[in-house]
Amino acid sequence: GYAVRGTVRTQAKGQAIKDKLAAQGVDISKLEIIGANLGADAGWKDAVQDCRYIQHIASPFPLDNPSDREALVPEARAGAQRVLEHGLSAGAERIVMTSSMTAMMGQRGRKGKVMLTEGDWSDPDWKPLRAYAVSKTRAEISAWAYVKAQNLQDRFTTICPGLVLGPDIYGNGGVSIQLIRELLSGEFPMLPKLAYPIIDVRDCASIHVSAMSAPKAAGRRLIAGSNTLWFKDIAALLRAHYPHAKAIPKTELPNFAVKILAIFDDNLKSIAPDIGIFHEADCAYVSSITGVMPRPAKEAVLSAARSLEAG
Question: What gap in Å lies between CA 194 and CA 119, rounded to an integer?
């Protein structure tokens, strides 16, 4: 029911989004798309003009992790600042910013089972933390500092999703759904011992929408997550439903091997701090605030697989 204005880096991408939405039967008569880039000022004043609510979702997330820990920070932090500055000046009632559970998990001394809560923060100066997590943490810290300095935190909310899976009906899936694609295609010879809370993309979207107007979401960090699965459990689930996919691995890679290989591989280096830790998230308060009851992780995994198979 909302009129929506979205930003894209190129108009060609904007048209592709409209085409995909229309193909799914979505009424795009109230959708406007304009050009704006996180790394430049141009376009943002026009983008936020007359917007009652703003969703700041974009952030740099390359498939390959840069070796420079701070490489993604300038664009992520400056992009958030631009949206906040222009949006609040234009009178937006609330700005909802997508952060990440990686802005919560990067802490020294974790072991065994770890329960993540709204008050948890990653330490961006902790050396094992890699580029994406550093950028998301610094960007969110900077955003909260900005709104608190102006006493406007009641017009700001952040969403911290876990591993986002679920259906990729627009063919726009990024790094998270790549995990399912690589498991099904046999690109994982063995499984790292990793476990993250999973959120279905549909529930993640619903939390974002609810956070715009839910009174109790004001000034809060909302964790978007359902239950947690080890990677080996995700692989077992896929094997059970896709028996023809013979290359889905069964064996876990020893923790010490991951840490040794991470010395030479930036992508493995990014997951090395999480090896062997069962991350859970305290999300009950989010359902209370937003009314969203997330689907089980199993459904998000299988929906992702089905959409990849259909594509």
Answer: 23
And the tokens for 132? 């994406």
Alpha helices in 90-122, H assignment, sequence order: 102-105
Which residues on adjacent β-strands are paired with residue 6? 33
Q: At what angle do helices 231-241 and 175-185 cross, to 10 degrees?
A: 60
Query: Contact at 8 Å (CB) between 191 and 232?
Result: yes
Token pair belonging to 167: 């259906």
Instruction: Using DSSP, state whether 231 is helix, strand or coil.
Output: helix
Enumerate residues 6+ apart whose C-beta is below 8 A from 226: 162, 197, 198, 199, 200, 203, 283, 294, 295, 296, 297, 300
Whether the CB-CB separation of 135 and 76 falls below 8 Å is answered with: yes
Task: Round to whole Å and give the CA distance between 228 and 190.
Answer: 20
**How do beta strands 113-116 and 278-281 pair?**
parallel
The answer on pLDDT for 175 being more than 80 is no
| Residue 179 parent element (H or E) | helix 175-185
Helices (H), 49-130: 73-89, 102-105
Confidence of residue 308 (pLDDT cuts 50, 70, 90): confident
The residue among 140, 121, 166, 118 whose CA lies nearest residue 286 is 118
What is the SS3 assignment for 295? coil
Q: How far apart are CA 141 and CA 124, in angstroms?
A: 10
Question: In the chain, how long is the greatest CA-to-CA distance?
Answer: 57
Q: What is the pTM of this model?
A: 0.93
Question: What is d(CA 20, CA 170) in angstroms, rounded to the nearest whole number?
Answer: 6
